Automatic annotation (TrEMBL):
Tagged with keyword Isomerase: no
One term under GO cellular component: cell outer membrane
Family the UniProt entry places it in: Belongs to the Gram-negative porin family.
Location of this chain's protein in the cell: Cell outer membrane
Name of encoding gene: phoE_3
UniProt keyword annotation of Transcription present: no
Bilayer disposition of the protein: Multi-pass membrane protein
UniProt cross-references to SUPFAM superfamilies, sorted A to Z: Porins (SSF56935)
Signal sequence region: 1-21
MF terms in GO: porin activity
Principal cellular location given in the protein's record: membrane
GO biological process entries: monoatomic ion transmembrane transport
Organism: Raoultella planticola (Klebsiella planticola)
Name of the protein: Outer membrane porin PhoE
Length: 236
């Protein structure tokens, strides 16, 4: 059977509950929240890998602790479990896992598996129950969406001086122990956004640049592309 070449040809039947959150603990500057969602979903698609049941459960924990009147520690972990596999299959995946420190008006710094700097722009289109933010934002694709080994500095309201002006600086360490298309070399990214308060209007811009790994360069040559045709870096 001829396969459809356009993702837009895919049809989805989605029944989704909104993400629910609950405060578990909040005392003496220590706070812990849990959240999650269940999505019952079935795809009708020409692609065998997509067609059928796509049900999943998502669960997360967010916490923070007040170290002093200036410094706060925080962390987040989020996981997803597939509902379309047998009990013997390992279907759990970690979506987010990071921890960091926030120094009042000077910003926050964290490290772990987090959202890439480019997602600060892509997030504007990732608001639908399904098929949201699917253009350049792909998981474990440099710093376009969720990725590992991210050191992230974020500053909101620009040191408390300019309301609505937010800045992100990010570094990603090399990740080679996986399939080539999910690998990345060392890279950096940045984003800047400004929210025009009270106008429901904001602008955002982001830039990332990462080294490609040797496996990725070899893979490109293996499909008939000349050495250097893609370059040694990925820039978005």
């Amino acid at each position: 059977m001829k396969k459809s070449s356009l993702a837009l040809m895919m049809m989805g039947l989605v029944a989704s509950s909104a993400t629910q959150a609950a405060e578990v603990y909040n005392k003496d500057g220590n706070k812990l929240d849990v959240y999650g969602k269940v999505k019952a979903m079935h795809y009708i698609s020409d692609y065998d890998s997509k067609d059928g049941d796509q049900t999943y459960v998502r669960f997360g924990i967010k916490g923070e602790t007040q170290i002093n009147d200036q410094l706060t520690g925080y962390g987040r972990w989020e996981s997803e479990f597939s509902g379309n596999k047998t009990e013997s299959d390992s279907t759990q995946k970690t979506r987010l896992a990071f921890a960091g420190l926030k120094l009042k008006n000077y910003g926050s710094f964290d490290y772990g598996r987090n959202l890439g700097a480019l997602y600060d722009v892509e997030a504007w289109t990732d608001m639908f129950p399904e098929f949201g933010g699917d253009s350049s934002a792909q998981t474990d694709n440099f710093m376009t969406k969720r990725a590992s080994g991210l050191a992230t500095y974020r500053n909101t309201d620009f040191f408390g001086v300019v309301d609505g002006l937010d800045m992100t600086l990010q570094y990603q360490g090399k990740n080679e122990g996986r399939e080539a298309k999910k690998q990345n070399g060392d890279g950096f990214g940045t984003s800047l956004s400004y929210d025009f308060g009270g106008s429901d209007f904001a602008i955002s811009a982001a830039y990332t640049s990462s080294d490609r790994t040797n496996d990725q360069n070899l893979l490109a040559r293996g499909v008939g592309k000349k050495s250097g045709s893609l370059g040694d870096r990925s820039e978005i």
